[in-house]
Predict the structure of adenine deaminase.
Amino acid sequence: MNEHRYRWRNRQLREHVAVVDGHVLPTIVLTNATYLNVYMKRWMQAHIWIYEDRIVYVGDKLPEQNDTTEFVDCSDQYLVPGYIEPHVHPFQLYNPHRLAQYASQTGTTTLINDNLVLLFLLETKKAFSLLEDLNELPVSLYWWSRFDSQSALQDEDTFIKEEQVLQWLDHDAVLQGGELTSWPSVLKDDDRVLHWMQETKRARKPVEGHFPGASVKTLTKMKLLGTDGDHEAMTGEEVFNRLSLGYSVALRYSSIRPDLPKIIQEMHELGIDRYDDMMMTTDGSTPSFYEQGIMDRCIEIALENGIPDVEAYSMASYNAAKYFGMEHRIGSIGPGRVAHINFLNAKDEPTPHSVIARGKWVKRDGESVDGNESFDWDEHEMGPLQFDWEMEDKDFQFSLPLGLEMVNDVILKPYPVQVELASNEVSTEDEAFLMLVDRDGEWKVNTMLKGFTTSLGGLVSSYSNTGDFVLIGKRKQDMKLAFQRMKELGGGIVLAHEGEIIYELPLPIAGMMSDEPMDRLMEQEKELKRIVAEHGFPFDDPVYTLLFLSSTHLPFIRITPKGIMDVKKKEVLFPAIMR
């Protein structure tokens, strides 16, 4: 069966009905189950019949005992719908396949994924082929359709074409348009994106906003232009404002914005006690943040902060399914739904001991069931990076009078550069050389970065928002050494210091992603954090620093493929130069 929005074929539907009539045997029967009925908003008792990948019956009847059906006694357990992560960035060092494997073990059986990296790396037809092959997982993977690059590209006008956007919006795996990081341009005069927003509405799919700190007036305008949801509320008041205007709100608990406990407390203070239009998200957190769980951890926080259990589980399942117009397929335990079911020891313990995804056991009594198979990325032209150019000494010439100063992990402000730039190393305590270099070796942007390190010789990363190369360091020779090692690896994050390679994280999937299982990748990321912290990194999330250096949806200044850019004015202050 083709998972996405497609219906089951007529023959399959007849088989499903025949199961209820006793003419065909169910695959699995969950007996004596106490389960969450999201429609009645109460815990109920029933026997649950599963046939292949679908729940076909929930009620008080049992089929005759037989040797074909698997009967599972669920007494003293609590069954809830498989969790839905509505806002996933599946390329944060991990890849969609490994993330989905890991997510299923904590009960998240549906992920709604950002397609931005696929727009950078693959033609549309090849991207759709990848989507189909990823669909072989028991986890349900759906996607967004992006309208902008989230940076300033040299070929911005050709990066996303009309035909490409419409093809993505028409795909049955695509559930929404957005997220809308280019909303200031839409408010001003960007009729191209506004047109795509309207095409999204025509397809009966929601438009996801990205409105950090937006006023009620701005939220009202964007509602008029067609936006349906937003995940950027950082206070209870911002949640209140969005709900009051008819937005669906995803409450965030992420590695750079772990706001969920505070938001819930402030919501209670404002008297918010209706949760039907709320979801929760981890918003593309970095790997080690997920050691504590994914949606199960969000539910746990909701329960700890006074949200009723029925509402907390619905926020992580049915509410998201309803928002995306998919409640007929996912988000509940009921006849006709895909068999995504979590088995809990207690109502207040949202991490499941067992998980069924699309009718298959993926976790049983605390143990993974065949959960570590690999995926052939080479088949989809997403193998290791291969390029035939080198970084030369002349590339390491710095002359810009304006640098970037870190305010936190992701916010940058401009500062006047006063250090001597002709030398081979930076003598001041917290300044370093910074370069963004085209993946194809055609252009570069050289400036200074203040606040990243006090001593690290060189860091090179093929992981970035645009897929171009980031180089940071106190010494040019260490930067060059790290670059050469990154090239040998076929992509990755490499640290060099005093002429030696001191750390490497291979990213063999297009230079952007690891293919290690999540637990191994978590350890690798923690080691990266430890080393950069030893060299003076004062914040918490260096991976997001590398990702967002070129992201123009954040203030105040960015290093982009076009050059150093003033985000608010949308002006290139110092253009990129050809190599």
Summary: The two ends are 51 Å apart (CA to CA). The chain has a mean pLDDT of 96. The chain has two domains: 80-380, 393-578.
